Structure formats: C-alpha cells, structure tokens
Amino acid sequence: MSIALRPYQETILDKLRAGFAAGHRAQILYLPTGGGKTEVAISLMDATSKKCNRAAMVLDRIVLCNQTSARLTKWNIDHGVMQAGHWRYRPYERIQVCSAQTLEKRGSFPGLNVLIIDECHAQRDQTLEFIKNNPDVKVIGLTATPFTKGLGATYTNVVCSATTEQLTNDGFLVPLKVFIAKEIDMTGAKKVAGEWSQGEAGARGMQITGDVVSEWVKKTTEVFGGPRKTIVFCANVAHGADLAQKFAEAGYNFVPISYKDDDGFKQEAIEDFSKPDTTIHGLIACDILTKGFDVPDVMIGVSARPFTKSLSSHIQQMGRVMRSSPGKEFGLWLDHSGNYLRFREEWEQVYQEGVTELQDDKEKPKKEKSEKEKELAKCPACGLLWPGNSDTCPSCGHTRARRSEVVAVPGELQELGGGSMVSRELKQRWYSELLGIATDRGYADGWVGHKFREKFGVWPRSLERIAVPPSIEVARWEKSRRIAWAKGRKAT
Fold it and tell me: What's the CA gap between 343 and 306, in Å, rounded?
C-alpha cells in the first residue's frame, strides 16, 4: 500500500521542488493544522529514499516520534528511529525519525540529503546551528503558523497550496461555532517579553473556573444534548488542576496533563481519550495539545489561556478542534480568554489567504477591544459571534436593532454564524466600489480604508485596487454613514 496524497498536497510538493530548483536551500511548507503536513513529509522522505538518498524528520517530543514512526509503518515504509533507547534504532535505514535532542547531541548526520523539521516555528538554537553547519542538506520546515520572529534568517521561501477556508469548504476541515463567554480579566497583568506571564494568567483564570465549567455544561447541553469530547487550554499546571477539580465536582472526568507528568502517563491519557468509548470527557493542558495532537472527533475547545501577542498559539489551539470526523459538522469554541476577538483580524487574513511569505510583525501585543466593541461583537442572549449578514442570531433566535438604525462601531466582528468568514469576493466588491466613490469625489486613499474598516472591522489588505461604480447597496450604505456622521456633529 502506497501513500495517496490529496491534490493540494501534490501541488505543494511540486512547489517545494520548484523552490529548490530556484536555489532556495531552506523552505517552509505551510499548511493549516489538519491539512496533512506529516503525510506530505512522509511522501517526500519516501521519494528521497527511492533515489537512494537519506532523509530525516526531526520532532521535539518522544510521543511525536512514535506517532510519525507509526504512520510510516502504516504505509510499509522502512525507517529507523533515532531516540535514546528506542526499540527501532536502525541507523542503516535511509529514512530516520529523530528526536531534536538526539540530533543535537550527534552534531552531525553523515550522508544526510534532506532534513524535515516539524513545527519549525518553535525554533531551537541547536537545531538552527545544525542547519547552519550542514550547508549541503536541503531543509524543509513544517508549520501552520510561520510567524515567529527570526525565521527569515534560516528560511528563504514559503510554499502554500491551500488555505483554511479552502480546506473547510472542501470538507477536509470543519468550521468553528464560536461563543464569547465570561473573559479572564488581565487588566494590569504582568508581562514577560510582551506576553502575559503564565503565573498571572493562571491565578486570574482560577477566579472564573466555576464560570468555565458552568458554561461548558450549558453549551454542551444546548448544542449537543450532552457532553462531547473536549480539550481545554489552561494557563499553567495549577490552573489545569483547579479546572479538573471543578469539573470533577460537577460530575465530569477531565484529565490534566503537563510537562510534570512522565511521557508514559501523557501518552496513555491521549490514547484512552482517542478511543470512541472513552470515559474521559476532556483533556486539560497548556501547550502539549498544540503539537501533534490528532484526535479528529474532538468536538469542543475551551480557550482559558489569554494571549496578548501569541497568534501562533491561538491558531494552533483552534486547529485541534477543526479536524474533520464522520458526522462532525462543526467544532464548538468557548472563548474565555478574549483571544478570538483579540486576533480576529489576523486570523481572518490567514483563514482566507494562507501564508506565502514570512511576516515578522504578525506577533506583536494587540490593542484590547473596548467593552462596547466586545459587547457588540456577540449575541447578548447566548454569546454567539454575530453573523455578518443577519440581524437575527442563528443560535438562539435573538433579534437586534437593524444595523441601518445603529451607528456602526469599528471592530464589529463580521463572522458568519457557522464560523465561516466574509468571502474575499464580497470584500473585493465593496473595496472596488468604495474606490469608485473616492475616485469620483476626489477623496484620499485613507477614506477608502477607514470606510472599509467601518463596514468589515478589518483593513482592506491583499485586495486588488480596481475602482468600479458603486452599486445601490454600497451607495446607500455610504450615504447612511454621512448622515450618521452629520447627526453626530450636531449632537456635539
């Protein structure tokens, strides 16, 4: 049995080959979480081996080495595992699965032709040094979040063949249904290197543990009729233990796992949780579940670890709930961290456009939304993010005042009820028609950007600058904004 790739996976392999032919020695392979980066890597290593060359894949956790080895075995691909004491130590094989620590201790890898680095955004100094000291080795970094500062010092090209939106539309991923729940208050919290400290986040998170548990019980009952497999992202070990205790007091079995647990316990817990008949309602962890965690039938994600700048962690977390599974129509996302609104503009851009170049400015501390913006972004009755094309909540049926009767508030979320974003085509049409109005009236470019943001809550990025005459819809909306502005001036 040979591995079968999806069309977009074949395409990304072609792009990698073209990149090497163009002189790029180290490239990043970008695919969304759940897009099958490991399968692409296995196919690439298999092709390398068949040419009598050597390939190695580097992973930074023992459990991930075992998972990758199991997948190679599934496809009947001969390989060895370079990891201390591993039963499959076979240094003569042309394909090697390596723990990062083992590779770094070796310092060299005779005859290696291709090196694949899993989760390359989590840069390890010694691995980077290995790449630098072995200039003849072709390097491929795998990631769904290539936003870490400094990646450009190692990698010179990014290849992308599918966006999250495309994979969702094609059924390879499922959309998220997001509820904005009671938020952990991080006002004035201590920061370390621009990010809220885990200690502060954990202590403040424990102040609303009861709300996290009660909201989970309420929403699982309303949406699914009862508990479904859940993963909870906590701030630190103490926070995770507190959450597990409160879930237990409510009658539910949630297992916290952390770096303090031995690898055997963590692997056993994840394997038990993966079973269709598991008695575990949920797993709780800080970072463990953001790498290599592959349990497609997880239905619910709970975000209880606030980030001020870590877009990568936010996207990695959501991706664990977006994997497709038979009968799974969507993933439920309960946001107690404020992360979804905090990163909504960046997430929407990645969702629709993917990543085709390295951007060091993606992970900077984000300005907090005002309380008014937060309230207007969700249904006041059930907390669902307001749909962008309706004044009626698709979850509970609550109806709000028509938007034409309300002064628009910058930052209002434009996500649709099922978790899908406003289409790029709709954004392009509005942008082009606003350009048409600006051209006709001699307005500056800044006017177009601000009007677009007033409508969609984001700036008009990556859209074509094509001006067209406005439709009746856009003309009426623009007129209503002028009237609202004029009334506002009179009121003051």
Answer: 11
